[in-house]
Amino acid sequence: MTAEPGLPFHVTSCSKIKQYLTLKRYNDLKEIRTPSGYSLDQAIRSGIENPDSNIGIYAGDMESYDCFAPVLLPIIEDYHHLDPGWSHKPGLQEVVLPDLDPEQRFIRSSRIRVARNLGKFPFSGNMTPDQRLELEKTVKHAFRNLPEKLSGTYTAFTDLNEKQFHALLKKGLAFRKGDRFMDAAGINRDYPLGRGIFTSRDNIIRVWVNEEDHLRIIAQSPGGDIANVFNRLIQMIKALGDKLDFAFDPKKGFLTTCPTNIGTAMRAGVHIHLEKLEQNLSFLETITRDHHLQIRGTGGEKTAVEKAVFDISNARRLGISANTILKDLHGGLQAIIQAEQKSRSFSGPGLG
């Protein structure tokens, strides 16, 4: 493969960075360094090494969003389908919503997570080993000072032997090195140094430390009571936010390593069993699209649907509040369950 004259991209690349990083923009930005020393060439390294990247650029710190705004802003506006005058919408309040599936006939589990970075540290792809350890030390101190109802245990991956680590992996508690896109961006460097997981005593909350972002705060529970899961997540976000300075911009919201996650930086979704709608995917896609949701495989993005269990989650993260995201999910799930019930009833006794 050859690169276009003056730009370090393969001709076959179809990434957003290839689309929006013109030669003029590259020349205007290539000498700029953020306060932590991050450059445009570092930001686009993953896109250069992986021509099949969808986006192809990562932020190395919160200042990247200002220093490289001429290319990052159009990518953000394109990816998030934003209207003129867009801005982050605040809104993170506890909610009261009915459990749509109290008998757990359809929804297997509910999971809501947010990404957060600390403003005083470079982001994951731009950290030294000492900075990773210092960040881990900082968040461990915050974990130790949580309210009793949120308290739990932090486990550093470097304290585990191979058998212990794989036991956590099997439970979905630990995380491996990231994919080749993250590897090229430097996010996997020094693994497993500085990485670990906090788990609350009730096992509903867990926090991954130093994965793609500094913190991945997750609330998960069996069944479909998404309001309870959301409220527990909010409690942890606010408790940690009182002790940690999250990277935040009034217009862009919470700043993340990948520009696709900024804004609320939230993914709210369920694993749901849809044996009939699996046979009518176009109808399922229509329902999810109408409620601003997206369909993913059982194991998440780029995975297959196994045994008719779908991952259904929000499609929007920026220009919309977290509470609106949850209401979209709740309304969409209600419509999906009704459609699945109707399809099963048409099958007749013994045919579903």
UniProtKB/TrEMBL annotation:
SUPFAM superfamilies found in the cross-reference section: Glutamine synthetase/guanido kinase, Guanido kinase N-terminal domain
Phosphagen kinase C-terminal domain residues: 106-343
Keywords noted in UniProt: ATP-binding, Kinase, Nucleotide-binding, Transferase
Record has ATP-binding as a keyword: yes
One GO process term, biological-process aspect: phosphocreatine biosynthetic process
Residues the entry annotates as binding ATP: 109-113, 216, 267-271, 296-301
Source organism, top-level taxon: Bacteria
Gene Ontology molecular function terms on file: ATP binding; creatine kinase activity
Xref: InterPro entries: ATP-guanido_PTrfase, ATP-guanido_PTrfase_AS, ATP-guanido_PTrfase_cat, ATP-guanido_PTrfase_N, ATP-guanido_PTrfase_N_sf, Gln_synth/guanido_kin_cat_dom
Transferase keyword on record: yes
GO cellular component, one term: extracellular space
Protein name: Arginine kinase
Phosphagen kinase N-terminal domain sequence ranges: 1-81
Family listed: Belongs to the ATP:guanido phosphotransferase family.
